[in-house]
């Protein structure tokens, strides 16, 4: 498909600076741009590429001021990153979706399957399970007994939804994600033996949740583990039993949220973050990579780094001292020797 710069600007409520008839038929990174491609500039670190890119058009912020001539047509928008996301979403939605049930799929008696559904090869839908209208169930997906999927959910290959778990509308689960596996619940009965505590709760994903590949969300011991509306989990994230992740919170890869922890809404959690159980993190917090949160964070919109987690500015000041410890230790030794010598006079 081919569009003009003015057509794209119209879709994005932007303005064109340059030739409005510039033809665009693909999207490319700004550093790899070529004729017919649309790129975007959201991060100032990449500004140098806008002067050399071969892309025919570039999305930029309304207030962008080039320091020298730009050959490409500029499409000025409020947020280039969001705008490119909108265009890519339109592109994906324009693709014809698969429909129908593969002959090797197994749908047990008593399961309910909605309209316009795709169920791929060797997928399994257990008794009393519900698959909502417009869902796309890819090969080798397992949907357990009495599990419920809302409308327009996408489950990629190998996803496992255990019994009685609930997905809202428009959820996306990537390959290998496991929803509703047993929580890590064991009661010590001797110094070296543990008794398994049955995990009889479930997992509830609200609308518009997206879960990355090989991420696991454990079912509750009792009640539910909750991922609220709009939560986004990266690949290889672990969410423990009875945890609750607030609306529109995002968590990057290799992070872990232990059982019964509560993370507030609109938080941004970096990679390899650890959050211990039975604590809470206030809304709007930003947590840097490899941070360890071992106590409740009460301050909303805090920015945290380090282990244990502390305010990011305090952490950076402390780190500056840490890098000078050898030098400071040497000075302490020198001063100690000086004091000792003065005492001995």
How does the SSE layout of this entry go?
Layout: E1 3-4, H1 5-12, E2 15-17, E3 23-24, E4 26-27, E5 37-40, H2 47-50, E6 57-61, E7 73-77, H3 80-94, E8 100-101, E9 106-107, E10 112-113, E11 118-119, E12 124-125, E13 130-131, E14 136-137, E15 142-143, E16 148-149, E17 154-155, E18 160-161, E19 166-167, E20 172-173, E21 178-181, E22 186-188, E23 194-196, E24 202-205, E25 210-211, E26 216-218, E27 224-227, E28 232-233, E29 238-239, E30 244-245, E31 250-251, E32 256-257, E33 262-263, E34 268-269, E35 274-275, E36 280-281, E37 286-287, E38 292-293, E39 303-305, E40 310-311, H4 312-322, H5 325-344
Parallel strand pairs: 4-5, 5-6, 6-7, 8-11, 9-12, 10-13, 11-14, 12-15, 13-16, 14-17, 15-18, 16-19, 17-20, 18-21, 19-24, 20-25, 21-26, 24-27, 25-28, 26-29, 27-30, 28-31, 29-32, 30-33, 31-34, 32-35, 33-36, 34-37, 35-38, 37-39
Antiparallel strand pairs: 1-3, 2-7, 22-23, 39-40
Protein model, in words:
- The structure is a single chain.
- The chain folds into 2 domains: 3-94, MurE/MurF, N-terminal domain (Udp-n-acetylmuramoylalanyl-d-glutamate--2,6- Diaminopimelate Ligase, Chain: A, domain 1); 100-316, UDP N-Acetylglucosamine Acyltransferase, domain 1 (3 Solenoid).
- The mean pLDDT is 96.
- It has a 12-stranded mixed sheet with strand order 8-11-14-17-20-25-28-31-34-37-39-40, with helices on one face.
- The termini are far apart.
- Strand 22 (186-188) and strand 23 (194-196) form a beta hairpin.
- It is built from 5 helices and 40 strands.
- With 345 residues, the protein is an alpha/beta fold.
């Amino acid at each position: 498909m081919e569009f003009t710069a003015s057509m794209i600007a119209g879709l994005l409520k932007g303005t064109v600076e340059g030739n409005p008839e510039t033809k665009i038929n693909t999207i490319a990174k700004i550093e790899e741009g070529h004729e017919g491609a649309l790129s975007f500039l959201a991060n100032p670190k990449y500004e140098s590429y806008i002067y050399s890119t071969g892309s025919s058009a570039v999305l930029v912020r309304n207030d962008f001021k080039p320091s020298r001539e730009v050959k490409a047509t500029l499409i000025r928008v409020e947020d280039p990153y969001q705008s490119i996301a909108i265009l890519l979403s339109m592109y994906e939605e324009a693709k014809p979706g698969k429909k129908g049930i593969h002959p090797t799929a197994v749908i047990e008696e008593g399961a309910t399957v909605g309209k316009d559904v795709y169920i791929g090869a060797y997928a399994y839908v257990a008794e009393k399970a519900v698959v909502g209208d417009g869902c796309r169930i890819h090969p080798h997906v397992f949907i357990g007994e009495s599990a419920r999927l809302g409308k327009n959910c996408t489950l990629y290959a190998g996803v496992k939804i255990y019994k009685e778990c609930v997905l809202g509308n428009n959820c996306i689960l990537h390959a290998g994600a496991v929803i509703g596996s047993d929580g890590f619940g064991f009661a010590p009965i001797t110094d070296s033996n543990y008794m398994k505590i049955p995990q009889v709760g479930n997992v509830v994903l609200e609308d518009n949740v997206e879960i990355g590949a090989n991420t696991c969300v454990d079912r509750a011991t009792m009640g539910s583990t909750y991922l609220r509306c709009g939560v986004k989990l990266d690949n290889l994230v672990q969410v423990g039993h009875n945890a609750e992740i607030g609306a529109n919170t995002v968590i990057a890869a290799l992070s872990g949220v232990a059982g019964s922890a509560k993370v507030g809404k609109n938080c941004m959690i970096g990679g390899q973050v650890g959050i211990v159980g039975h604590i809470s993190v206030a809304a709007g917090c930003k947590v840097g990579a490899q941070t360890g949160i071992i106590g409740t964070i009460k301050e909303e919109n805090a920015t945290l780094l380090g282990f244990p987690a502390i305010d990011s500015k305090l952490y950076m000041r402390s780190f500056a001292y840490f890098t000078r410890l050898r030098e400071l230790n040497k000075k302490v030794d020198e001063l100690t020797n000086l004091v000792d010598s003065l005492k001995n006079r």
